[in-house]
Amino acid sequence: MLVSQQQKLQDEIRALAARHGRTRAALVPILQDLQVRYASVSDFAMQVVADEVGIHPAEVYGVVSFYAFLHSQPSGRFQIRLCQTISCDLAGKARVARQLENELGIRFGETTPDGRFSLEWASCLGMCDQGPALLVNDRVYTRVSAEQVHRIIDDCRKVFGAHAAQAAHAAHA
Amino acid sequence: MSGEVKAGADTSRAPSSQKIQQVHVGGDVMQLIGGQITVTIDGTDVKVPMGTTVLDAARRVGVRIPTLCHHPDLCVAGVCRVCVVEVEGQRALQAACAFPITSSLKVKTHTRKVRQARRHILDLLLSTHYGECYSCKRNNNCELQALAKEYGVDFYRFGHVTESQVPKDESSYSVVRDMDKCILCRRCVRTCIDIQEVGVLEAVGRSNKTRISTFLDKPLGDVVCINCGQCINRCPTGALHAADTSDEVWRAIDDPTKHVVIQTAPSPRAGIGECFGCEPGTPMTYQMNTALKLAGFDKVFDTNFSADLTIIEEGTELLGRLHKALVKGEPVAFPQFTSCSPGWVKYLEHFYPEYIPNLSSAKSPQQMFGAVIKTYYAKANNIDPKDIVTVALMPCSAKKFECNRPEMADSGFKDVDYGLTTREMAQMIKEAGIHLPDMPKGDFDDPFGTATGSGVIFGATGGVMEAALRTVIEFVCGVKVEKLFDHANIVPVRGFEGVKYVELPIANVSPEVPAIIRHLIPSFDFLKGATLKVAVAHGTANARRVMEDIKAGGKFSECHFIEFMGCPGGCIGGGGQPIPTSPEIRAARARAIYEEDAECAVRKSHENPSSTASSSPTAPAAT
Amino acid sequence: MQPTSSKKTPLTFDTIAPGQGLAAALKKSRADIIGEVSASNLRGRGGAGFPTGTKWNLAAAAQGQDGGAKYVVCNADEGEPGTFKDRVLLLEYTDLVFEGMTIAARAIGATKGILYLRGEYVYMRPHLDGVLAARRTAGQLGANILGTTGFTFDIDIRMGAGAYVCGEETALIESLEGHRGEPRNRPPFPVNTGFLGQPTVVNNVETLASVSAILAKGAAWFRAIGTEKSAGFKLFSVSGDCGAPGVYEFPLGITVAALLEKVGGTGAKAVQIGGASGVCVPASEFGRRIAFEDLATGGSIIVFGQGRDMLHVAKNFMEFFVEESCGQCTPCRAGNAKLLEGIEMLERGACSSAYLRELLNLCETMQLASKCGLGQSSPNAFVSIVTHFQDEILGRTAAAH
Ligand SMILES: Cc1cc2nc3c(=O)[nH]c(=O)nc-3n(C[C@H](O)[C@H](O)[C@H](O)COP(=O)(O)O)c2cc1C
Ligand code: SF4
Ligand code: SF4
Ligand code: SF4
Ligand code: SF4
Ligand code: FES
Ligand code: FES
After folding, report:
1. What CATH number should be reported for the domain whose range is C310-400?
2. pLDDT reported for residue B448
């Protein structure tokens, strides 16, 4: 990362800390905001956050690595999380999963080379009566069938496509 | 009780799940908290103060409850679950180490359910535990192994890993991490965060992928670890151990062209007996002299001798700084910090680098001694320094790092070639077929044989300060310390309180300035009526408290001299000392040290006849 | 593909006008509010079924450290597989939930409330923030609520970050404090030493909404519904092999068979009551009652049709727990993994009945010795499935699968 970018990130984290508080109780909200903006919490960000809330970087890493929605490794702009729990399983999540892998050309746990999509398993999403369910970032899709998968992915490309591409560019530059 | 570290350890950072919490029980709290309560443990009644854990209550009536994640120095974790017991009226079993007594309980400690649970927990731990006891550093000194024996584990009920899952991390000079053997008790995490405030170890990941790791899983050698080894001392298994150089030392001993010299520090002598089944606090100083010679060392010297040099250095440096500041008005870094604990020095470098100028320029006794051997001693005995191998027997794992620092080779040779811990030395002595306690007593070798009591007490927290004060006070006041302090015991700086602060008013000064500092200070008059303010801190969490206070301009910023020791209790609690450790064990070792001091003929560094003789050649090396 | 409403029956909550409960509460003394809740026999809807009145009493009596604040936390982490009724309440009965928190605050003397919303529900944020803002404008939150001098209370929303265990109340608090979501040792309980060391009441979304209803309509009304030990109506999240999955309301005490009839699930092979941490009830036991005294549940009902492979079901549950255990304590961290391994052996037809017995013993250890409710209940599904469907599970051949 360039020095100027580091500086920018640092200022941003300071601003977040000012908003959420410079105490440990503000840790998760700060990390969540960073996760949303950058699709991951970078090494450098973790160190700055640690300084801001007055804990050790290893402790921040311990927290990031605990929660499924926080990532220390770069992940896609679109996080596709397919529910793997029982009701969605009964409703046919296996075929949806296979089709997701086919459409994106990656396996679960991976990110597409262009940094756009990550594919992850999720535990029950609270949509069990309408499974199989999946989340794309903060958007829920229910009663997903294998044949609908490509539409969801197209949706991402179209609906959020334009501004996300910009954001992704900014984040990965 | 275990007041020492807890009083000092800052658990404010610990997850609340790992703190002893205030237990509010309704009713008149004050009355209840002060109150006693009767519990029944396996049919025996015992009266305990409110809030006592079931584990402690059971110990009072001699009922042994096994533990793994519990440690007397650390806050409660309650994670291994091997200590579970049945509490009448509770459906689930309760962790004895984490269950505070607030009402009259009936507890049973070895029912079917309890025995089954303990056995299962051991079986589960062993199922993922890769390691063979006979090739393990902790063989015969391992809490997991001991429990497996106690609970009659004779087969692996839930299987057993047969391949290593994680490569060893040998990146650090001091600490080796062998996570194949880790049982996730998190004692190291609590040590590194709460006692040491270094915070390089943390639980990472979750579920069965949880591991103990560092920031971004970096090798330990690449993170801010201060090499104190406190995590090793509290690890119940062989998952953490010191980087062992005893093979290299044997090789040197076996090589007839090498002159192998060993210096022994006071703390190992107070501790090593424990490795041979002696009670903590059984001194082995003179038995060890004989044993080391038998094992093949050419010379056995006393590090205390150079501790005396360190004292004189630090003492005169302090007076010099005072003189510069008060008389010459030159900018001088105050307070002056001791520099003899390499764990502390590294801590300061990592976390408070702006205060490096405050460190005394004196080398640690180990390095100072090494330098003397490779220069003065080599010359005096006509031995080529390249043929001398200096070994330091130390209570410390950070010394292993220290002796590898590039700046520790002024003479062109490493001051100290190998640092061995107390544990490693015990191992070598055993390997030589020697049962240490049976050895006849033997003396140290001359010319460095003579050491003073001041050198001895270096081993305990407050010892350096006491030694320094004995010298400084006598220099400045021109009267015998014994006149001011009974038996020259400067009691206010002793003891295990996390941070000690003492003020010493200087009423009268000596008209005479001792020869060794006359070139620095022509007269002591400037100190007349002044108050010398000193402080002592041990364990780097306590050091942090002091440093933060200094940064904030608090009372410690007005101190003149502060002793910092990286390890809780000082060197007697060092990261290379025998395992286990506890407040009681450290207190016993400290007692041994103060007794040795009391028995010394000479108790003040500047009165050491050898040090005044040889201090001049070392002084350049040490500045 | 867009979610639709899950409601399948009218809910009693439809008949409770927002504001009624809070208005009634503010006319009472604090002790009387708690008295009313205690008299209703309301037990927690989050699964554990702790009497709500008792919990509030303890928190009301507890002293904060340094005279510090007390907290009311609404547990909206709804992570139990097969549970989604809190989603419906949060989206469609939002005011009743916030009102319940406000009543709780009044009762115990809390000044701050936190809604801990699971990360998966982040899409609700705009709606929830909007309702909070409206309540502030209406004087239902903030200083001197509805003109009650000295009653100040406001609510923050905090998001979960993808950890089922954070629904456990002490793990939830750890998470709020910026730690890994690892459950604490209990005692002390959150009512004494909760968020930031202060007395804290943690209640489920439905519990709090029910409180609003109870204050509006009276304890006697509520107690008249359900059974003696399980008072009141309860929401059920029904999913799996049935005609009309969704959210239903029934009085507690309903039999499994009666419930199946209403949801179009008659003829089922088995029903999982209480989600992954609940038990699997075979058809032969459909006469049992859903109530705290028999089959306790936070409301998750998962129906398995005749064709379902129960070993596959058990495997899915164990995979869930292996993923979601916090990993802190030995029985749960290593035990769940062993059970999953056992299931894989059964799948391959490679498990002796002696080893299976050993695994069942291990289940007992996990239930007894785990540190928190997750590990204590994670073996339930395994035990009930293995016990009831042994003939289906043992001696599989590779071909059968
Ligand atoms: C692993 C685990 C997960 C839990 N998840 C939830 C949850 O998602 N929502 C909830 O309300 N309670 C959950 N609970 C129960 C809570 O610990 C707690 O008992 C409950 O929030 C108390 O509220 P109540 O008394 O109103 O039910 C969970 C418990 C455990 C052990
Ligand atoms: S850690 Fe203990 S149990 Fe493991 S191999 Fe070493 S001695 Fe044996
Ligand atoms: S040696 Fe000291 S600083 Fe390093 S990990 Fe261990 S306890 Fe922490
Ligand atoms: S390394 Fe040792 S002390 Fe640390 S968690 Fe593992 S077994 Fe426990
Ligand atoms: S039972 Fe499981 S979730 Fe609960 S503390 Fe233990 S490991 Fe964590
Ligand atoms: S099981 Fe998939 S949303 Fe609940
Ligand atoms: S010793 Fe009590 S839980 Fe580990």
Report:
1. 1.20.1440.230
2. 66
Query: Which CATH number, 3.40.50.620, 3.40.50.1780, 1.20.1260.10, 3.20.20.140, labels domain B257-623?
Result: 3.40.50.1780
Alpha-carbon gap: C334 to the closest alpha carbon of chain B (Å): 6
Residues of A in contact with C158 (CB under 8 A): 28-29
Q: What is the 3-state secondary structure (H, E, C) of chain A?
A: CCHHHHHHHHHHHHHHHHHHCCCHHHHHHHHHHHHHHHCCCCHHHHHHHHHHHCCCHHHHHHHHHHCCCCCCCCCCCEEEEEECCHHHHHCCHHHHHHHHHHHHCCCCCCECCCCCEEEEEECCCCCHHHCCCEEECCEEECCCCHHHHHHHHHHHHHHHHHHHHHHHHHHHC
Closest by Cβ to A68, choosing from C159, C162, C246: C162
A125 lines ligand 6 (CB under 6 A): yes
Q: What ipTM did this prediction achieve? A: 0.95
Q: In terms of pTM, does the model score above 0.90?
A: yes
- From chain A residues 51-80, the ones with a CB under 8 A of any chain B CB are 55-59, 61-62, 65-66, 72
Percentage above 90 pLDDT, chain B: 76
C12-223 CATH pick, 3.40.920.10, 3.30.300.130, 3.40.50.11540, 3.20.20.70: 3.40.50.11540
Per-domain boundaries in chain B: 257-623
Contact, A99 vs A59, CB < 8 A? no
Touching C: A residues 9-48, CB under 8 Å: 23-29, 31-32
Q: In the CATH scheme, what is the code of domain C233-304?
A: 3.10.20.600
Q: For C162-219, write each residue's pLDDT tens digit.
A: 999 999 999 999 999 999 999 999 999 999 999 999 999 999 999 999 999 999 999 9
Assess whether the C-beta atom of B242 lies below 6 angstroms from ligand 3.
Answer: no
Hey, is the C-beta of C129 within 8 angstroms of any chain A C-beta?
no
Average pLDDT of every residue of chain B: 90
Counted domains in chain A: 2
* pLDDT attached to residue B33: 54
| Yes or no, beta carbons of C240 and A87 under 8 Å apart | yes
Residue B623: pLDDT over 80 = no
Does ligand 3 come within 6 angstroms of the Cβ of B191? yes
